Amino acid sequence: MKAAAQKTDVQMISKYREALENYSKNPNLKGSQVWKQKDLTEISFYACKLQCVPTKLITTWRSTLEILQLHTNAIRELPDIDAESMPSLKALTLSNNRLQRLPCEFLMKCRGLEMLNLENNQIQEASHHLIHSHRNISELNLSQNQLTSFVGQEECEDYAGTLSRIDLANNNITSISFSNCSTTKEEDTELNSHIPQIILPHSAFSSLKVINCKGNRIDSLTPFLPLLLHGQLEVLLFSCNRVREIPTEFTTDSMKHLRWLDLSYNRLTSNSIPAGSFGKMPQLDHLFLNGNDLSEEVTSSLSSLKIEYLSLKDEDNVAPSAVIEGKLFLGSLQSAQSFFLLKQLAITHVLSVLRTSKPFYPEDFQYMTIDAEDTASYDISKCFEMSHKFIDSGLKGGGAVLVHCAQGISRSASVVISYIMKKRKIAFEDALRYVVEKRPIVCPNSGFRSQLKRYENRLNDCSIS
């Protein structure tokens, strides 16, 4: 009965999608049949152009609503629902909105939350307090925000945590902690300097099994040791960070639960991995170290590990293709992730033609990001001129430029083709043929091809005039 009711809820919401899309003209949804529905348990307002949420939308089904999906709108804040709570709400999705801070006041009324998704907003601050104040949360997603830290701001009593997965990927985090307190008092360190310190994870994280921290600026694995040694952590996704060495604890058999470890695209070198690392982990069956600066000797030694899936080197196709030798490169997202590869090619500028892409190494390279979709209807030609200026700025300064999208096939390829057309004063087909010779997988989608042909006509008109 419950499943059938939820299905009806979704169908009902879809029926009134048109009214919701005209929300700006009718901010209170006046006259909408949605208010006549009783005892709804699930509501989904996906891509309805909501800039704020009507209080009535929350309060009408306060006691029955279990799932509220408000993703892909333009929401900046949530309404004040007074002192009353939403006891039944278990899942709240607010991804792809414009929140600049955690909606703490609203969340405090939702004590039963088990899943909270705030991915791809503009949130700048979050701490352990969010978890301490919502002790039923099992899944928390804060990926693709603007966080610079995730630590405990104050002492909190122990309790049995239920959090099993936390996603913090693609932020700007440099400081992170999962232990009992964020700092150690200096006097305590002096008094107990002769006693080996055992830092335990806070009990709030005692059930944590999956951490996704890829795409941040964390330079050490030490903050994760309490969870790895004394917790239940099974999966650590940590690619595209700044780690320069593997702690000696990774040579022991103390990490009894870890089965998936991704350290690809960090700053590891052959000298920074202690002998015997990873070999005594009883559950480890997936290990990723590709995209680091490892010698043949080290990779040969690691390849003897009895691990089901082991990635030590990038595939050959990760390296970008030289369109103009030593100057202009066309590649994939993996090309842009590899710090050592970028340095090896003397790249100075990176042009990302990719949705929701953030600079991986902004302190080392100059970036420009174009939020482009790989669809025939997307107008990529509007990006040509600004892209050309960025490429020129890199080349004129004596640098080298990487242009990339997800695969280096359509979006970034179209930008590079347009650049070659303009600089060499050649037709689209000739420029396409030239770029395909350099990177055979290049294949702009049909819409981009049409736009490039029109761009050829514009260039011809300019040359005639």
Automatic annotation (TrEMBL):
InterPro entries: Dual-sp_phosphatase_cat-dom (IPR000340), Leu-rich_rpt (IPR001611), Leu-rich_rpt_typical-subtyp (IPR003591), LRR_dom_sf (IPR032675), Prot-tyrosine_phosphatase-like (IPR029021), Tyr_Pase_AS (IPR016130), Tyr_Pase_dom (IPR000387), TYR_PHOSPHATASE_DUAL_dom (IPR020422). The keyword Repeat applies. Residues 381-440 form the Tyrosine specific protein phosphatases domain. Its EC number is 3.1.3.48. GO terms for biological process: negative regulation of MAPK cascade. It catalyses: O-phospho-L-seryl-[protein] + H2O = L-seryl-[protein] + phosphate. Pfam families: DSPc, LRR_8. One of its GO terms (molecular function) is protein serine/threonine phosphatase activity. The keyword Hydrolase applies. Residues 319-461 form the Tyrosine-protein phosphatase domain. GO terms for cellular component: cytoplasm. It comes from the Eukaryota. Keywords: Hydrolase, Leucine-rich repeat, Protein phosphatase, Repeat. Belongs to the protein-tyrosine phosphatase family. Non-receptor class dual specificity subfamily. This is protein-tyrosine-phosphatase. It comes from Planoprotostelium fungivorum.
